[in-house]
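Dock magnesium ion; give full complex structure.
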Amino acid sequence: MITIKSDREIDFMMQAGAIVWDTHQYLKSFLKPGITTKEIDDLAQDFILKAGATPSFKNLYGFPGSICISLNEEVVHGIPGNRKLKTGDIITLDIGACYKGYHGDSAWTYSIGKINSKKEKLLKETEESLYAGLNVIKSGVHVGDIGYAISKYAKQHHLGVVKELCGHGVGTEVHEDPDVPNYGTPGTGTILKEGMVIAVEPMLNYGTADIYMLEDGWTIITADGEPSAHFEHTIVVTKDGYTILTKR
Ligand code: MG
Ligand code: MG
């Protein structure tokens, strides 16, 4: 079921989104060689709790971390642990926060010190693909229009579009209907209406689109070992466009 959010609900979701944004800004300053992904996760949890929210992903489907932290060839759902960041790594922080019963969800990939040109291209263009997808959104467009815009951009830049994972509705659950794939055919799929809240989240690979899951049952990595990036915002659909909620 796809819900249309009331103004009051959107106000709560804006506050949840602002907490997600603030958590990203806070964690960014700690992303240096030597810190472990578990230490980053602990900082995230403390920050979200102090802001009066709870981490959306903690125990979601049994996930052990407060946020998902994925490095280099890891696409999504990396589990925080003892690994230390190194210069040249890229790191995706996928952060969800629940405030007064409503969620915000935003992932961003960051560089640790100087990264190679391959990773630089991947980060810049995956972020741009997010905006390519967002910029088609307004009341009346189809979900397929978003996916088409993202995959068209990715193809033009020779990046692999991960198809097994997709964006989604957001509300009192962090994952709601509809699915928002990063590929599609214009004019097909769910029609978006004013007041719907969705997360748009391209996951693009430098190499092929193929992925597989590690034995931990969570971490998804690229099949060819090439790096992967992930950029995500939660937005509300408006009459003529959209408003980003996971931002201040
Ligand atoms: Mg996310
Ligand atoms: Mg999401």
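Observed: The first helix runs from residue 7 to 28.
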